[in-house]
Specification:
5-stranded antiparallel β-sheet; 3 domains; Jelly Rolls; 7-stranded mixed β-sheet; Immunoglobulin-like; 23 strands; globular; mainly beta
Length: 353
């Protein structure tokens, strides 16, 4: 309520002073609001639909990335997985290439990363998105996305043989979508990982930074290096001649702390002689090479489902973990040991007589 009494010292209504104060406060508030808006505009994800949650139609078969909002198939036909599909073909978490919970939300995508092809070539899938605004030349940007290897189990028609490196992000001024745009592969990316990602249980974050040398308008996710420039390891000898990864949570920002930082791949096991053996008749896992400490052991089947869990108190010697399941006919397993800020993953193929 305004004070309409007189200011005895100057003979003017105090309302004049009050109105001036209100205008000053409003101007200050407006400036503050504009500053906040500017900060928020800077601290944002520049990638539309980064987690693939928004879609025009629920996917029902492989190769339907076009059913997401904003994203498009830049090369070959990436998959779109969403929990709205209940057929286990392109659903979440079960689908034709395996089993994986989303990093966030209820959706993710999938791409071939390697095919053991001719030098400079290789059948890789690439997905792209048009950025709502061009990048600023000379500005530093931070980018990231999450990837998870998958075995294809239990669908025998989609078994994956390889895990590979070089997954990354490439930016371009142009919309690229054909063989002539990509092959031979450019052997470069704005960010990529040189480490081979084999983790099918957790999501691995691939991240980096770069200075924009052009006003880029398109962002692409894939392996942009030829198969002769890509390192790959055999995960399943009798599977198809491909590498395949789920992709989620793509991020691009001009703010250094907005996008997630990279996950170190395999660093925790360096210098360690950790190994494990499944003694099926004794119903036990024999684990050795762990530093002394307390750990949690988790056993996953090839589809990424938890089959057993136990706490492990290691004295630095060989330890025995009781496990009461019959692995007959279940194929490969993955053992994860976590503790002391480290994690080890070990592939187990139990010999059942």
């Amino acid at each position: 309520m305004l004070d309409l009494s007189l200011d005895r010292s100057h003979g003017r209504p105090r309302r004049v002073h009050t109105l001036k104060m209100v205008r000053t406060i409003l101007r200050s508030t407006a400036c503050t609001a504009l500053a906040v808006i500017a900060i928020l505009a800077r601290a944002q994800n520049l990638v539309p639909n980064p987690g693939f949650e928004e879609y025009t139609e629920c996917p029902s078969i492989y190769g339907e990335l076009f059913k997401t909002n904003d994203w498009f198939a830049a090369f070959v036909s990436p998959e779109y997985y969403n929990s709205c599909d209940t057929s286990d073909i392109v659903g979440v978490p079960n689908n034709m290439f395996g089993f994986q919970q989303p990093a966030t939300g209820a959706a993710y995508t999938g791409i071939w990363s390697y095919s053991n092809g001719d030098p400079g070539f290789g059948l890789h899938e690439v997905m792209g998105v048009h950025l709502p605004q061009p990048l600023v030349v000379g500005q530093t940007y931070w980018a990231s996305f999450k990837a998870s290897w998958t075995s294809g189990y239990p669908f025998l028609d989609a078994m994956v043989k390889y895990a590979s490196n070089n997954l990354g992000i490439l930016l371009s001024m142009d919309s690229l979508s054909g063989e002539g745009d990509w092959l031979p592969w450019p052997n470069r990316a704005h960010i990529h990982t040189e480490q081979i990602i084999t983790d099918s249980i957790e999501w691995t974050t691939i991240a980096g930074q770069f200075v924009a040398d052009s006003a880029y308008r398109y962002l692409y996710v894939g392996n942009f290096f030829g198969d002769d420039q890509t390192e790959a390891i055999i995960m399943q000898p009798d599977a198809d001649e491909v590498g395949y990864y789920y992709i989620d949570d793509v991020c691009l920002s001009a703010t250094p702390t907005f996008c997630p930082v990279a996950t170190s791949v395999g660093e925790s096991a360096q210098g360690s002689s950790f190994c494990a053996h499944w003694d099926v008749p004794a119903h036990a896992l024999l684990v050795s090479g762990l530093p002394a400490g307390n750990y949690r052991s988790t056993l996953f089947d090839a589809a990424g489902r938890v089959t057993a869990e136990a706490l492990l108190n290691s004295n630095g010697q060989r330890e025995e973990v009781a496990i009461d399941i019959d692995p007959k006919g279940m194929g490969m397993f993955i053992l994860r040991i976590q503790g002391g800020g480290h994690a080890w993953h070990y592939k187990l193929v139990p010999l059942v007589r």
